[in-house]
Each structure stands twice: as structure tokens, then as C-alpha cells.
Amino acid sequence: MKKKFSQAVCVMGAMCVLASTPVALATQGEYQQTTLSAGNQASVTDDVMKTVDEALVKARKLLPYLKEYTFKTVTLDKKRPNIIFVQLGKEKDQEEPRVYIEFEAKTGKLISFRLAAEEPEDEKKPTWQESKEKAIAFLKEWYGPDMDGYQLNQLFTEEGGYGIVFSKSVNGLLYPNLNTRLELNAKGEVVSGGPNGGFPYEIPSIEKTSFPDPKEALAKEQMTKTVASHMKLSYWADQKLLAYKPTFSGYLDATTGKSLYVSEQKYDLPGEIVKVAPKTNKLTAKTKEEVSSYVKQEFNVDIKAEEWKEESFPKTGIKVFTWKEETDDETVVTVVEKTGEILSFSKEVTKIKKDSTTREEARSLAIKEMEKYLPIDMKEMMEIGSSKHINDEGNGSFEFEFVKVHQGIPVRDRSFYVYIVNGKVMRMDTTSKAKFTEQLPDLKAGVTAEQAAQEFLKKFQLEYFYPENNGNKALLVYKLATVYQTVNEQIDALTGKVVQEDEDQEAD
Description:
- With 508 residues, the protein is an alpha+beta fold.
- The protein is built from eight helices and 29 strands.
- It has helices at 46-62, 128-143, 154-160, 224-229, 288-299, 359-371, 433-437, 449-457, and strands spanning 2-5, 10-11, 15-16, 31-35, 71-76, 83-89, 98-104, 110-120, 150-152, 164-170, 173-184, 190-196, 231-236, 241-246, 251-253, 268-269, 273-275, 309-313, 318-324, 330-336, 342-347, 380-383, 385-386, 397-406, 409-421, 424-430, 460-465, 475-480, 491-492.
- Strands 1, 4, 5, 6, 7, 8, 9, 10, 11 and 12 form a ten-stranded mixed sheet that branches.
- The relative contact order is 0.12.
- Mean pLDDT is 86; it is low at 1-41 and 503-508.
């Protein structure tokens, strides 16, 4: 088995590897003057060829393995006239290995490169600690002794797992909006490098950006009240865990102490209590025929019973029915095998059209769907909001999660989830009635929200951040030290310590 390496990867606030340039035919010893699509055609002149020749001489000194690649292709794009795209191959028409390079059109400066190759699956890559010194030495050779103001971002490098990441350094603080990344192979060769941006909006050049003095930052302790106001209790019944869960982006304005909205970050929002009236006649299905009837009745999907596949899981008592259409789209229904209690339905969605359905209309549909499955004695549920749904109005798809409430606290693993597309339920998942109705213990926190906030703040670091549409001004922020877009951290409400990550606790 072999695996491709030097693949495109995106991690929030860390990296988003430059996309590969288009493949085009080339001949040995000369450049094939090719273009992109007809609408973006741009001729490759002799001056461009001269720039490429001179740039490749310098690039081969930096990357000696380039000497093995003698087939060359030059491509220009009208949409990016300041970039020259070059591809290098060992043999004519060979897709891999192949090197993709971008040069600055005016100066021939190397912007980025990526070696697309294969290596044995069991080939062990060096750890980031082993690669660090080599990567720093390489960047100094490429960018100059001061590495063009970049500094190793240990968090992104150690936790991201996508090579060695460097962020711009301003006034001694990291500025992760501007990053560059290097990747090494098992031989210790640098096989990928170039600027990376994890934000889907334009970042002004560092020369045009103003940065607050780090001395303007408030002490981290002064953020306690703000953070405490966002720490909400949640309970995980299966783990018997009562915890404070943050309900904000993980970004704090260090000069004002206020929390920041960052659209790329996903986090829970405080929920509202929803009054429910469960139906007395519960839906059940044990056989293929009954499942087919259920799917037709509830979701208007026609399925022949003999076309279902079924699989039992004795350890959990669950049976899964699956039907794959000619288009390979799957419909799946999960039930409790002994009772036929329906736990989930999902129909694969291939197209989503923007429509006039409002979130409130979709929410009403979701609540009606939930009432078909909840135990009869359930009177209320709590809606769990999410930051990712703030701007989803009119997109045609909506997600909703509702959870059991115990002593005013949401029980996160006793939930009902609904996914609605163009006014139709395309997926629903529910906790079993047995778990919904089980007795839960008296819940009392051993630490206050302020104490939990103090512990949570230990995971924040001071750095610069550029939010979308903020002119030419960067902000001084305290940011949760994580490479991920989802704010998953929790504080144990009994011990006051950070809960070790457990995927099973997340109700995504």
C-alpha cells in the first residue's frame, strides 16, 4: 500500500495549502507554452521563459531534487497575472511524481512549491521535533536570516499534524492570520512549502496593517467575568459528568475584555426551553416490510422491502436497515431490535436548493417530528443553538438539536437531532426512550462559573488577529490555544479542572 503525501489541508487559523496548478503537456528540454481555460488564456512570452529559467536555477539550489525533473510546463492565468505556474515532471505524460511551483511574475521569486508523489505506507515521517531544526534552517535559506519575520508556531505544528508551521511575528507576538508551512518527507527533504491562510477572507499585507501595542492588553485575570458569563453547565449522563461548557468563540479582545464573534469558529449557544406534546401512538418497525412502510408513510420514499439490507449488532441490541438506490444514495433506518423502537432515519442529500423556508418554519417542523418519538411523559426539551447556524437563513438546509433538561441543566447525551432540507426531514437521530426516562442524580456544581473561567483562561494566549472587514487594523486578542474550529473544551464542575477530550461526549 502506498499513500500520497503533500496533500492539500485546511485547519482553522493555521493553514490551507495552495491548490495544485493545472496539469498540462510538456516536452523535454523546452517549455510547453500552455494556458488554462479558453476564457483565461494568456500567452507565454520569451520574457516569461527567461524569468522561469533564472528562477529555476535558484530553486534547484534550494531544492536539489528538482534536477531530476526535466520535463517542464509553464502556465499563465489572466485572473492571477502576477503568478507564473510551473510544473516539473521526470517523464513525459507522467502524472506523478510531479512538482508544482509558483513564481512571482515580475521578480521570479519562489512563492510556493509542492511535490506530488507517493511513498510506502509504512514509511515513517520524522516528528515535528526532528524536523524543526531542518525546517528553520531551510526557511532561513529561502526567506533570509530573519525568516522574513516568521517564527515557529509550536501549537499549530505540534497539534495540527500538517508539517512545520511558521506565523508572522509582530512585537514579539504571533500573528496566525499570516502563516507559511513546510512539509518534510521520510528522507528529510522539504517537499512542500508556501504561504497558508485559514480564513476565507482577504488579509491586508502586513506593511499596511496597524497593530496595537502589547502593553495595551488587559491582564488575563480581568477577563474572568466575561468568560464566566459564557460558562454554562451541561451534564453527560453516560459519563456522569457535570461540566461547564463555554458558549463563545474562544477569542477575547485583549484591550476591552469583550468576547469576539468569529464566523469560522463553531460553538454552542445558550438554549431555549421548548414545550413539547409527545404523540401517544409511537412509530415502530421490526421487519423490512414495516421499515419500508414507515419510510413511505413518514418521508414519502418508495422502497421495495426485498431491496433492504439488514444488519444486527447483538452487543447494543441495534438493527440497521440500509437501502442503496441506483444513484448510490443511501437510506438508513436504525431500530431497537427487540421492540422495533426507531432511533434514526437518514436519506442521503445530494442537492440543496436555496428556498424561502425560514428557520422558524423549519424549527416548527423539527419540533413536530420530535414529538413523534419522545416518551409520553416528556413535557419540555432544551434547544441547543450553534454559532454555525447564525447566518443559515435562506440556504435551504437547517439543523436542530434538542436535549433533555434536568434541574434546568441540559443533558447533552439525551438528545433529538433533526436535519431539514428544502422543507423535508432528511435525517433524524434520537436517544432511546429507556435513556430518556431513566432517573438522574441531583446535580450540584463544586466550583463556580468564575472558578471555571479562571481555569479555562489558563489555556488562552496573547496574539494578534485580523477579523473580517476590519480595515487595516489587527486586534490584540487572548485566544484559546487550539488549532480546531470547534470549541470543545469543558471544565469539570466538581474538580474545576479541564476535562480530557472524549469524542463520545460531543453531541455533534
